[in-house]
Hints:
With 240 residues, this protein is α+β, with helices and mostly antiparallel strands. The chain has eleven helices and four strands.
Amino acid sequence: MNTTIETILNHRSIRSFTDAAISDEQLNAIIAAGIAASSSSMIQATSIIRITDPNKRAALAHLAGDQPYVAQAAEFLVFCIDYQRHYSISTEIKPEYTELALIGAIDSGIMAQNCLVAAESMGLGGVYIGGLRNHPHEVDALLNLPPYCAVLFGMCLGVPAQDPQLKPRLPMDMILHQNEYQPLNKPLLAQYDQQTMAYYQQRSSHNKHQDWSNIVTKTLSKESRPFMAEYFHSKGLMEK
């Protein structure tokens, strides 16, 4: 195993940061690592907005669900699908197609993960902030996003002030299928549920008496941002 894989396997979401800054050299390397990520047909349909204005940080922390680390982290980056750049080159492009939105979302996720792995390789930590999609129109207005450009998620980065336990992940045999889709292995799921139950009961904060099956059932059985389709349509995306 090499140091890159060790860094990836040691990933934890960090939500508490010291007051230490991230140097310009570090930030430039993090963004460069993101830009180097794979991109479908070299479309490169992502823009990153670095938020340095403390008032905007505070507003975004509130819009994301009152997550204080959005305001406290050394850096906060917002990742957006961006076809305005392409539309500025040629009005012949068709950003309204759902496939293009999928490409933009996938490319943005790949780019962001490159950024986070690069940061973690430097001893920094971070956490994704999907809560920006709680109020996408308000975030959009705050960031002055043009047509064909839409907010996806944010990322806090900084020097960790905590050392959380590793969350147990689904076993590989439940993720990796051979040649065709395999039915759910319920005995293996039961073992994983026991493992996650033990994790949530033993971790240092936010203990809960739940296993993974209960948590995902609770999460996925409720309404999930039904306004997002309208938001993307308002940006000229996902109309076809």
